[in-house]
Amino acid sequence: MKRVEYVSITDEEALDAFHQCCLLEGIIPALETAHALAEAMKRATNLRDDHLMVVCLSGRGDKDMQTVMNHMAAADNTQEKLV
């Protein structure tokens, strides 16, 4: 019986999942949870419409806001340099 599977998610994928959760659900997930959400979103694309997926959201995202804002500022700065 397979009990666990370890996967990797990039920081970009986790931050995208973080933003989507904030926008779509009004929930600020912890960054650790955002990694799980990113993988769940990948897997959801391969599920039947009648399949139910449950993802446990743990932790608080408010403690991660500075990290997210720093990443957004760095991404904005990178975009400005590319233009």
Automatic annotation (TrEMBL):
The keyword Iron does not apply. Keywords: Pyridoxal phosphate. The beta subunit is responsible for the synthesis of L-tryptophan from indole and L-serine. It comes from the Bacteria. One of its GO terms (cellular component) is cytoplasm. Its cofactor is pyridoxal 5'-phosphate. InterPro entries: Trp_synth_beta/beta-like, TrpB-like_PALP_sf. It comes from Pseudomonas syringae pv. coriandricola. SUPFAM superfamilies: Tryptophan synthase beta subunit-like PLP-dependent enzymes (SSF53686). This is Tryptophan synthase beta chain. One of its GO terms (molecular function) is tryptophan synthase activity.
